[in-house]
């Protein structure tokens, strides 16, 4: 496949980079950043992962690409001030092929980033499996001090059963609920119910896709503990992390 060859070249040629989007406590403190992959293609310009992650997954290229993301995110975060965390998105394919535990521990070792400052965002596709192997891999990460977040919660087939089965530290409520907060009482009720449940289980409750001050106000009353979205900042290049910290403090 053409795209596959291009991606392979892009990874080898240093055209991949990470953007970072801040995550904040309800009190407005930046607690860390989510790493979001971008491909800086000389011809196409900046390409978002929605356009190439599927091809990377089908071709297996997600394994070396995912390893590059983990190493780069840990190395870049190691130079950030304080205890700021970095959250890295994982593909379900990374749990199947290769030795994900070795990849993560090597990224931590090479970077010197304390494990407690790394968060791994898993998708519903990982949760759906919730095989013994997935659960034990997640338990080994948590034993290191790495935190686990369940991304895009509330979409697709995501179920309450995962919350019992998976060792989690954080739930990210899908941005579709946040988007509908203003018009929809049911969206607000669902956010409140999920947040109550998650908080009772001791989990951080992240609301993503926060775009307006009105949405932030609603979320405040619904039990969320962490927010993220363009209201605070869009994902920006790594060199702009200090500027984001200044602007948001
Ligand atoms: O970054 P947006 O800006 O376009 O990201 C689109 C989608 O791509 C999101 O679902 C996000 O989780 C996913 N994504 C972003 N970066 C990575 C990455 O490094 N690895 C994987 N597997 N998915 C990523
Ligand atoms: O699926 P995941 O949560 O990993 O992906 C994050 C995606 O959300 C990225 O594509 C990122 O660019 C996008 N994003 C970040 N902030 C906002 C926002 O405020 N509104 C919307 N609609 N998308 C956002
Ligand atoms: Mn994510
Ligand atoms: Na998400």
UniProtKB/TrEMBL annotation:
GO MF annotations in UniProt: catalytic activity
Stretches assigned to the EAL domain: 1-249
Keywords: Membrane, Transmembrane, Transmembrane helix
Full protein name: Diguanylate cyclase (GGDEF)-like protein
Stretch of the intact protein here: 515 to 763 of 768
């Amino acid at each position: 496949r053409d795209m596959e060859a291009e991606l392979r070249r892009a990874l080898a040629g240093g055209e991949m980079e990470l953007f970072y989007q801040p995550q904040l406590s309800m009190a407005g403190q930046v607690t860390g950043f989510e790493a979001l992959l971008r491909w800086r293609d000389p011809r196409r310009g900046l390409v978002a992962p929605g356009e190439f992650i599927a091809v990377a997954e089908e071709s297996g290229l997600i394994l070396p690409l995912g390893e590059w993301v983990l190493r780069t995110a840990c190395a870049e975060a190691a130079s950030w001030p304080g205890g700021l965390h970095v959250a890295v998105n994982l593909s379900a394919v990374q749990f199947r092929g290769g030795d994900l535990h070795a990849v993560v521990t090597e990224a931590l070792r090479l970077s010197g980033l304390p494990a407690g400052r790394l968060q791994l965002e898993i998708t519903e596709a990982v949760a759906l499996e919730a095989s013994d192997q997935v659960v034990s891999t997640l338990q080994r990460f948590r034993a290191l001090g790495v935190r686990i977040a369940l991304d895009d919660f509330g979409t697709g087939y995501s179920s309450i059963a995962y919350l019992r089965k998976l060792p989690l530290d954080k739930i990210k409520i899908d941005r579709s609920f946040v988007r509908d907060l203003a018009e929809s009482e049911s969206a607000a009720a669902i956010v409140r119910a999920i947040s109550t449940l998650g908080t009772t289980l001791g989990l951080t409750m992240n609301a993503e896709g926060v775009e307006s001050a009105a949405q932030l106000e609603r979320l405040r009353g619904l039990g969320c503990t962490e927010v993220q979205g363009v209201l605070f900042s869009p994902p920006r290049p790594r060199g702009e992390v200090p500027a984001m910290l200044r602007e948001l403090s």
